[in-house]
Amino acid sequence: MKVAELIAARTPEWKQLEDDIYWCRGSGKKDAERLAKFARRYRSVCGDLSLAIAMSFPAGTTQYLHQLVADAHTQLYRAESFRISQWGRTIFVDVPRRILRDPCTWIAFVVFWGLFGGTMLGAVLREDFAQAIVGEQVLEQVEEMYAKPLDGDLLDDSRAGMTGFYLFNNAGIGLRCFASGVFLGIGSLITLAFNAIFLGGVFGFMIRSPSSANFLTFVTAHGPFELTAVVLSGAAGLRLGWAVIDTRGWSRKESLRRTAPRALESAGVATILFLFAAYIEGSISPSQLPYAFKLTVAITSTLLLLGYVVVLGVLAPGSRRET
Fold first, then answer.
1. Phi-psi region at 4: left, alpha or beta (left = phi > 0; alpha = psi -120 to 50)
2. DSSP string for residues in 131-167
3. Percentages of the chain per state (helix, strand, coil), in multiples of 5
4. Residue 199's domain spans which residues?
């Protein structure tokens, strides 16, 4: 039998094992008969994986079987009690791998940073560019806000309140990016684009401003965590939107149910980043610490993000590209 014919013949069994995995992840009492069938399918797919390696199946198929076997193994042999090792694998292996290899992550990344960078460049090169996009009144308020150097003594008593305010504000942006994704992903794209253009216009305008030093002193430290969180929130929303478009033969409700855990992984990481950003924005950014220290915080944050998403995502074993 040819490889293509073998793959076509075995695909229904693989899809059934996928259904068993989703069923097993659910709560409630498990049916013993179905569990027995699940175990038989798992052993059968383990044989398919060995055959795929021996017969040099297409790389995508082999990677898919690797992931299918890993997921089935996790569900079949999982313990009902919480285990740190499983939690650690999920946070530091599964999540960064899926974020990195999710096309929605890259779409959100390109949309946000492309529009942000283009708008900022336009605002730097042309004085009236930012005014046309952001509005003259808004820019005047921003410039007035950073007209004077940061007063550390004034901020000492209000930093806790500022952290709460920034957390609430940032979480609101992330929630809008995520929740609006159910509208075929268009809502997430619009929210991402709006924030990218607005922030790019403000950044470009302030770089030209006489108050640029004060502005950069404030935004540098918390920028990497905050902006990355916005991108990941948008990616999570796009993942939901794509589930409505490409249902893979399921109903839209079922497609959303199956996709939601994957989208929530990106949203969960974004929430953690918003927490970090809010803390930095409320305590380090407005302080009178040297700019070199704040720049070091930004560089360290960027390296941590690259290490978590890129390095851990690339090194994760037995993975396949998310679609």
1. alpha
2. HHHH-HHHHHHHHHHTSS---HHHHGGGHHHHHHHHH
3. 80, 0, 20
4. 100-315
Residue 157 counted as domain residue: yes
184: left (phi over 0), alpha (psi -120 to 50) or beta: left
190 and 285 together in one domain: yes
Whether this prediction's pTM lies above 0.85 is answered by: no
* 173 and 195 Cβ atoms separated by less than 8 Å: yes
Q: Is residue 27 part of a domain?
A: yes
AA identity, residue 156: D
Do residue 134 and residue 247 come from a single domain? Answer: yes
- The pair phi, psi for residue 181, each rounded to 5°, is -65, -20
Same-domain status, 49 and 150: no
Distance CA 255, CA 90 (A): 22
Q: Helix count (H) and strand count (E) of the chain?
A: 16, 0
184-228 pLDDT, tens per residue? 889 999 999 999 999 999 999 999 999 999 999 999 999 999 999
